[in-house]
Design brief:
- The protein has about 280 residues and is of the alpha/beta class.
- The strands form two sheets. An eight-stranded parallel sheet has the order 3-4-5-6-7-8-9-10.
Length: about 280
């Protein structure tokens, strides 16, 4: 198992994502993922499956302290007082007394970032979250958050896969020692149709998805969160630690990006960075 260290956090490089998983699927797949060897589980208040995720962790044979558990605060709870209350509710749903990594799910321009980060810092100081971070923050927002936060930020969770160039974000994060956690790392299944990834995969006896995941975690300070409701896919997504891509292959995969490669772009998203 490969870990990424960032600002005091030690984060398993492959985590199991639970976005859009119904509670019963989330429970079954988290329990399966922990059995396979995953030790990083990602959920959020907005996913409406925290209770199921918490139950799966308790039902598994893995000790709570061996699981790196991430959840995210939704944007309607970003004011001082509301944020702390929402985290307590998350802890109750998850059935745990601490979260390993607590993230702000999306930027919210209607609440001062200073106020939100102050509340987030307080949650960490009380020991309710061991590490804190951000999600879907752009380059200017990364710099602002790093400056405003009293405690260092462990990660910025953003969409990242071979079809989306996140170099500006990676460069900004590296200035502050912050890792990048890639959601949607398989590009909603698009990677499985990619001839380049398929061809490289044949050399290692791996599928295109495993190549895409390996490309992500082989970069400095990048973590990937594949998600699936299929137990076989959950298993194969974890089988990426027994081979290494060459520099040429890494470079070839990096060139697959396109200007319109972004797949997650809700109406409330910030104005995204564009790669040079």
């Amino acid at each position: 198992m490969h870990n990424v260290t960032a600002n005091g956090a030690t984060i398993p490089a492959i985590g199991f994502g639970t976005f859009e998983l119904e509670p019963k699927d989330a429970e079954a797949m988290v329990e399966h993922a922990l059995g396979v060897g995953y030790r990083h589980i990602d959920t959020a208040q907005a996913y409406n499956n925290e209770e199921a995720v918490g139950r799966a962790i308790r039902l598994s044979s893995v000790e709570r302290e061996d699981v790196f558990l991430t959840t995210k605060v939704w944007t309607d709870s970003y004011t001082d007082g509301e944020l702390q209350k929402s985290v307590q509710q998350s802890l109750n749903r998850l059935g745990t007394d601490y979260i390993d990594l607590l993230l702000l799910h999306w930027p919210n321009p209607d609440v001062s970032l200073k106020e939100t980060l102050g509340a987030l810092n307080e949650v960490q100081e009380k020991g309710l979250a061991r590490n804190i971070g951000i999600s879907n923050f752009t380059v200017p927002m990364i710099h602002e958050a790093a400056e405003l936060s009293g405690q260092p930020l462990a990660t910025n969770q953003v969409e990242y896969h071979p079809y989306l160039d996140q170099k500006p974000v990676l460069d900004a994060l590296s200035e502050h020692g912050i890792s990048l956690t890639a959601y949607c790392p398989l590009a909603r299944g698009e990677v499985f149709k990619d001839p380049t990834l398929e061809r490289i995969g044949k050399q290692y006896g791996k599928n295109a998805g495993q190549i895409a995941l390996r490309w992500l975690i082989q970069q400095d300070n990048v973590i990937a969160l594949p998600r699936s409701a299929n137990p076989d896919h959950v298993t194969s997504n974890f089988e990426v630690f027994d081979f290494e891509l060459t520099e040429e292959q890494m470079s070839e995969i990096s060139k697959l990006y396109s200007q319109d490669g972004r797949m997650i772009n809700p109406s409330f998203a910030p104005e995204w960075d564009t790669a040079a």
